[in-house]
Amino acid sequence: MRALTAKTLLLPILSGVLLLSPPIAFGDSPEFPTERSDLSPKDRKRVAGVTRPTQDFSKAENFETMQGGAATTKALVNGDAFSHFSTNLTFAEEETFKLGNALFRKLWVSSPSSTQASDGLGPLFNARACQSCHLKDGRGHPPEGTADNTSMFLRLGRPARTEQEQEMLARHEALNFPDLTYGKQLQELAVPGLASEGRMTISYEEIPVTLGDGDVISLRKPTYSVRDLGYGPLEPDVTLSPRVAPPMIGMGMIEAIHEADILAKADPDDRDGDGISGKAALVRDHRTRQIKLGRFGYKAENASVRDQSASAFVGDIGISNPDAPFDHGDCTSAQADCLARPTGVQERLGETEAPDPVLELVTFYSENLAVPARRDPADATVLKGKQLFYQSGCTSCHTPKFVTRRDADNKAHAFQLIWPHSDFLLHDMGEGLADGQQVGVASGREWRTQPLWGIGLTETVNEHTFFLHDGRARNLTEAILWHGGEAQAARDAFASLGRDDRAALIAFLESL
Ligand code: HEC
Ligand code: HEC
């Protein structure tokens, strides 16, 4: 992987799009900086030195424990490990964080109700609060037994059908197209008296996999469908993309990574021939409509925490807000009953169900959840596992570290050495993980590299170890064995390790 100039970066991205669609004018092509604009040449050199992957596995690196930079929390490791605010917030910011926290946990109710400031739920929804899915600010899980599906849902989308729709995709004006009746996602819940859209069902098939040393691991392959469809059939070309709520930590730091640092790792046509490409997600900022680098969501479809949060309010809870002013959430014109329901807009409070400053506060909260400190980066087994992680090629996508931009909007996020272990690029992960759903630049086989910080505390916080976008992996070993496509060689390297070495690599992941 190598740094690219503006031309070599743009051409492959654009030609990739052009192959699929008729030539169109690129009036507003993104002009991303190819070099960090926030640093002097001397600082650029320093940063390059600090972020270069280590080759010394005899001891922990400087500052490795503080994986979220100065925002890292060293609080006691317990079930609240993901719920602390960044330790470098000012006192006034702590207060803002707490107000945001209350709104993140707030249970919205259906209209009309006596608690008017909480009105507006739905009419169709997946959950009543952000926290219902991002459990303890951590991750959700697939339903088990008779438990409900709350912290996981199906996104609905279909590909372009016409030239005009293809142009919209190429211009990043649309990410894909919603189902005519059910909209952009399947809402399993509805306000009293309204039909819900249906229920996600999952069936698993066990697939045995033999590792290099003869050990056999069973992977469960999921198949998704919808039963009890409340409003007739889905359109035939609509695909189902299952997603479990991801953990909420370190998000402001991810926002503060300079574009040039992410783009430097992009290699969409694999010109360096290492089998790993890595594509930048280009999306529109919801408010300015400018083309930005997508960083959030499993397919990097949102450029900012604010955009992701605004979409969550309206799509997941059915709460309109200034950035997504749809009082009836994701109901479509084919759902007349839904559109006829009262909304929760209170004119004395504002024009939407969550008027300013609700979205700002929730965004601030989401941007400032601290990353927990590494527990034992200097442990001999952890260091051994770290070496194997690097040698197996995991770092080709799970980029260990970045230094955030010096000119970040929030000083707490500025110029921090952080260790997310992600390149925030899209990769083809093979047929096994494919959902078949295009989301903007991301194909039906592509996913954003998932950051790994905090992953070792999943069980501590959420009392389960389900990983990957749909929680199919029941532990870290299964998560690695599902890697395919561009990650096939890394997966095979892991599978060929002996039992002790595999355990060491897992011990490294558990120390993150
Ligand atoms: C019904 C479950 C659900 C609810 C409710 C929910 N989320 Fe999420 N959240 C998800 C899922 C699933 C994703 C991954 C989305 C994707 O891939 O597009 C996600 C992703 C995110 C991300 C990006 C995380 C990342 O790693 O990129 C943020 C930030 C976020 N949610 C904030 C919120 C906020 C704020 C609220 C409340 C307004 C909220 N969410 C409500 C399920 C939920
Ligand atoms: C080609 C890029 C690539 C390589 C190489 C790669 N990964 Fe990943 N990794 C990803 C992507 C993309 C995801 C998200 C996949 C999904 O959710 O379906 C992921 C997810 C994971 C997860 C689950 C994260 C979570 O929060 O659920 C773990 C653990 C992981 N990778 C470990 C590894 C290890 C260990 C290696 C080396 C043996 C490795 N990866 C190599 C791209 C890569």
UniProtKB/TrEMBL annotation:
Keyword Signal listed: yes
InterPro entries: Cyt_c-like_dom, Cyt_c-like_dom_sf, Cytochrome_c_Peroxidase/MauG, DHOR
Domain Cytochrome c: 380-512
Residue spans of biased composition, Basic and acidic residues class: 33-42
Transmembrane helix keyword on record: no
Signal peptide: 1-27
A Pfam family the protein falls into: DHOR
Record protein name field: Thiol oxidoreductase
